[in-house]
Give the backbone structure.
Amino acid sequence: MQRTISCPYFRKAFGWCIPIGGLGGLIGLGGGEFRLPVLMYAIGFEAKSAVPLNLMVSLITLAFAMASRSRAVSLDALAPRLPEIFGLAAGGMTSAFYGARLVHLLSTRRLVPADRLLASESRHPVVARGPLSISAFGADAREPDGSSSHRHRRWDRDRPREQHPRGGWG
Amino acid sequence: MVHLVTGIGAGIGIGLVSSILGVAGGELLIPTLIFLFGADIKTAGSASILISLAIVIVGLWRYRQIKAIPVGRGVQRITLAMSVGSIIGAILGGLAVAYAPAEFLKSLLGCILLVTAFKTMTHNSR
């Protein structure tokens, strides 16, 4: 526990989230825009992990903000606004349903350039046969016809989560 | 009825933008509620929290389905730290709404929107 508290990342995460949560509660935001840079640059998460984590903390922030807000101000003013609240929630939920998949696909696709670079390097005679050959790093295996299967292997290894049992977007 | 349909349209747009940015979308929801539907800032804030809650729950559920939520002790600890900090902040902020004048909240929202816009702009050009 002592070690956890003295960990700089733990303190950064805790310290930054107090003002961000405060703004969230005061104005009515989840505070995601401000928490994402903390997760990515101060703590060092990749975008792919930072986005879901950020949403988790947003959920907690929003739930507690709502609870304390309902004590501070009357929620009666919301009643005549119910149609637009339901509309915005329905539209937003629809987008969020497909958006999560989209974000995940986009952030996985970022691996493509690095992958192509490796594939083209392995076709380069010196790189392919010399000591710098990718197979020298134990990451590659040659096909019987001499072509490199590296590209596909690496691609598959880097995106096991793509093999979603239900597939597609639905 | 008009409000419901307009709301759905705006919600789809906001949801798309915010889920791509990886946020709940309060920054877009509150101005929409104020300028499109004529809500006052405190009502807009409460409504935004309710709508964001629904959006975030769906987003998390989807991330869980595609197994994109990171796991591990380190991640758990950081999430715990952030959650505790956020809970303290959110409770204090929520209680402060009762005392904060609407004009102050509006200016604060304006500043947040400007900072967010600037940040998004500079981030994309990198």
Notes: Chain B has five helices and no strands.
